[in-house]
Structure formats: C-alpha cells, structure tokens
Amino acid sequence: MSRVVAEPSLVAPIPIVTTDTAEFWNATAEGRLLLRHCNACAAAIWYPRPICPFCHSDDTEWRESSGRGSIYSFTIVRRATAEFADAVPYVLAYVELQEGPRLLTNVVECDLEELFVGQEVEVVFHKTSSTMALPRFQPV
Q1: With 70 as the cut, is the pLDDT of residue 10 above it?
Q2: I need a surface site. Which of 10, 76, 93, 118 has the fewest CB within 10 A?
C-alpha cells in the first residue's frame, strides 16, 4: 500500500515532534499513516491532537488510515523563497482522505499538467530523518 522513499524529490524541514504527535511521526518512519479517532462522536481527526475538536472529548485513539483519498484542491508552485527555490515547480494540495479529514500536503511523482480536483491519490512517505517521514501523495 504505502512506501517510504529514502531520497525525497521535494525538500522540507524536519517536523517538530511533541508528546501529542510522537506516535504519529514514529509510524511515518514505518510507512503508516495514523489518524486520531474520537470514540465519542466517531470523527477522524487531523491534525493529531488528543482532544476532539468537534465534541471536545478526550476519548480518542490512534487508528491506521487507508492512506487513500482524493485531491480536494491544489496549486502548482512555480516561484518560491530561497529555501525552496530548487524544488519548484511543486504541487501544494489539500487531500481529502477516505476517512474524512483533509490534509495540506504535496502531490509528488506526477505530471503536473495532468492533475485534477477529485483525482484519486495514495500516501507515500519521504524520509526526513531515521525516525520520521513526511506523508505526501501520488496519483493512483
């Protein structure tokens, strides 16, 4: 289903890990996308946090996502700051997961001119260190 790529095609800073997100980031190094799930209102939660933003319950748990979804919205970045100048052009997108949440992410390994809203995508992971990877998406 998902895979971890050692050499990402798009550079990114290493995310800051907190006690609330450590399990999420550890799973990414194994090629697994975790979402918090609220047991009180049954919502899938993104961004990882222990309190449900919908009903404010603290009865939440980690569940593995299917890693599949569709492009909700996207833009092709053709000009960037010096830090990302070598990466342009790249795709910045909202991907709506099958479980419901929308993630701000990148779409990679694709023909930029062939992307469209509603296109099916699946997660791939780009290593940022030995203990974590960034979830990005590619067309199915």
Answers
A1: no
A2: 118
